[in-house]
Each structure stands twice: as structure tokens, then as C-alpha cells.
Amino acid sequence: MKGHSLSTVLLAHLSNADGSELYKVFMSLQSGVKTLAHLLSRAGMDNLLGVYEGASSASADRDEAKRLDIISNDIIKQAFSASGCISAIASEEEDNVEHIDNGMAASSNGQASCEAVFDPLDGSRNIDAGIPTGTIFGIYCSSDGSLDASSRPCLQKGKHLVAAGYALYSSATILVLSWGQGVHGFTLDRGSGEFVLTHPAMRIPARGQIYSVNDARYFDWPEGLRKYIDDIRQGKGQNPKQYSARYVCSLVADFHRTLLYGGVAMNPRSHLRLVYEANPLSYIAEQAGGMGSDGRRRILDIQPEKLHQRLPLFLGSPEDIAELESYGDVQQIGEKKYTV
Predict the structure, then answer these.
(1) Inter-residue long-range contacts of 142-147, CB under 8 Å, 24+ positions, other chains counted
(2) How far, in whole angstroms, is CA 201 from its chain's centroid?
(3) What residues contact residue 28 under an 8 Å CB cut-off, 6+ apart?
(4) Which positions are annotated as active-site residues?
(5) How far is the C-alpha of 126 from the C-alpha of 122, rounded, in Å?
(6) pLDDT of residue 108
(7) Gap between the Cα atoms of 274 and 144, Å rounded
(8) Which of 107, 188, 282, 338 could form a disulfide with 299 if both were Cys (CB 3.0 to 4.6 A apart)?
(9) What is the DSSP pairing of strand 98-99 with strand 173-178?
């Protein structure tokens, strides 16, 4: 179905009763992504860059907000709400879960059906320099009321996701989605205003030749991680080829490249968020034949204890992630702060 519109592809795969709510969520979300892509393309002209003066200061849970962080949060939150199928949403930009009572977010038996978690604008720290940014999201749904929305909303294990995806805002706007049937990439046709299928059934190579990490922190890394990077750079690892470094410092951009070309994208510090970033991207990675790990265990098996829980994250080709884990000590655990 390459070249077909997003709505056509979704109707072919999500036309049954179980898929109808996801269809509504995806179609509503893609409208928000289009709106955000347009705003990002005009941010410099419309005075949308810089720090949001009305936001609270950075904390242990949340980073300092940019103007576009606040705007994008409102856009994506509204898109999820407008679908009529979301009962609770959690955003990286907000401290708590927001419950939605729109009279529509219920399954046929009256139980709340879907919850959404999202990072509205990943990579916004560098947005003033025109660096690629993205939106990351995950969806939990239940048609039988099995989601315990009353006690722990949006704190499900990643293995219970029913869909996830991300939007990449770069030279093109690309929307990558999975609803449990592989991974599919859609590119925004600015002429028609439609997302069209350009990357059907995406599969990450079993092994790559690229690693993505901020290796300015090399001397703070544990011995296992330093040894792994030393080996693959010199062609002394399981792959006899020497690896190249590619690092954008935008998680969506680094992951998207890894999904296409293979290798590993990582942050060994407890910096990235389990709920909003690690779980959705690990779901995408696994649906494409890859892996998501904290360096010791499968990301999707970890039970979130709080909304803004952070952890090390390693995403990529299955053979590369397995080799990385075999070095043992690869997590940079500690509270060391870096000033940028």
C-alpha cells in the first residue's frame, strides 16, 4: 500500500471493532502533528523561540520549558482529547495525569478504554538552532475494563502498550506508527496536506555499524561501556567493521536513523523517561525486530513507579544490544550534573 494515505492504510488495518478507537486516535493525532509541524517551520518568524517566561523553573522531574514546549503540549493534548477515546493523558510537560471526561472515552461496556502518554516536543533544548525535533507517544487501551485507571493511570508496563509512535520534524515531517502489526512510516505531502505511506513494514537491521551517544562523557562512563565503545570503534567487537559515531542529541532523530540503518542509540545515564520516551520507542524497536534495554533488562518489562521516572536507555539492532549487554557494567549511575 505504499503511496496510500494514512487514512486509507488505517482503514484497511483498523476497520474492525477492536481497531476503531485506535483509528480515531491516530486520525486525531495526525491533525495535531500537522499543526505542530507548521508552527515549527515558522517558529523563528513568529517569535516562538526561547524559554517560556511563565513556566516554572527546571526541576529534578522536568527540564526548563521552551515556548514551543508549552505550545506543542497544548496541541498534542488537544489532539488526543478530540479523538473522544482517551480517558487519561500524561505529558512530560506536566506533573500529573489529566483525566478527560468528554462523555465519549468509554468502550461498549462503559469502561474507560484508552490512556495516552507523550513527550510533545523531544529535542526542544536545541530547537533554536533548527535541530530536528519530534513527538513521542504511547497508547494503552482496554475493551474489557482491565486498565486500572482509578489507581495507577498511565503507569502500565510498556509490554501492555497497544500502539506507539513518533513524529519527526526535520527536512520532512515523518509519522512512524505501530499498532502491533509491525512499524510503518508516513511522510507529510505538503502539496496535498496528507500523510502518505513511504516506509511500509520497517525492519531494523540485525546489526548496524553506527553508535549514537554523547561520548564527551566518556571518562565518566563505567568500565564496561568504555570497553564496548573502544572495541566497536576499533573493529574488535563481534562485528569486525569499525563503527562510526553519529549523534544529534535529539532522541527521535537518533532513533529514527538507528531504525533505518541499524546500530545502537543510547544514553547510559538515568536521564530519559521510562513512561514518555523509553516505553514507546522500545515498543517501536521491538515491533521492527530490534530491542530496547536499560543495559540489564528489557525496557517493556519494567514497572513504572512514577510518571517522570528516569533510566538509562539503549535502543537498536538486536545483535548490537545483546553485545552491549554482554559487557556487563554499561549504566552510568549517579547524580553527576552537567552544565551545558
Answers:
(1) 142/107, 142/111, 142/113, 142/114, 143/18, 143/107, 143/108, 143/109, 143/111, 143/113, 144/107, 144/109, 144/111, 145/107, 145/109, 145/111, 145/112, 147/111, 147/112, 147/113, 147/115
(2) 18
(3) 79, 80, 82, 83
(4) 63, 69, 92-93, 119, 121-122, 277
(5) 10
(6) 47
(7) 26
(8) 282
(9) unpaired
The mean pLDDT values, 10 residues at a time, for the chain of 340 residues are 92 81 95 96 86 58 78 96 94 94 53 84 88 96 55 88 97 97 97 97 98 96 98 97 96 98 97 97 98 98 96 98 97 81
Region 6-199: CATH code: 3.30.540.10
Burial of 42 (0-12, 13-18, 19+ CB in 10 A): exposed
Fold observed for domain 210-326: D-Maltodextrin-Binding Protein; domain 2 (3.40.190)
Instruction: Check if the beta carbon of residue 223 is closer than 8 Å to that of residue 230.
Output: no
CA-wise closest residue to 122 among 90, 166, 176: 166
| Predicted pLDDT of residue 124 | 87
Q: Residue 340 has what pLDDT? A: 67
Cell of 95: 506533573
Note whether 111 and 9 are within 8 A (CB): no
Please tell me what DSSP assigns to residue 66: B
Q: Which of 257, 325, 309 is nearest to 285 (CA)?
A: 257
Domain range annotation of the chain: 6-199, 210-326
The predicted structure's pLDDT at residue 144: 47
From residue 314, how far is each of 41, 81, 117, 270, 272 by CA, in Å? 30, 31, 20, 11, 10
Bridge partners (DSSP) of residue 66 are 51
Q: Is the dihedral of CA 269, 235, 315, 295 positive or negative?
A: negative
| DSSP letter for each residue of 239-296 | S-SPPEE---S-HHHHHHHHHHH-SEEEEEEEEEEIIIIIHHHHHHHHHTT-EEESSS
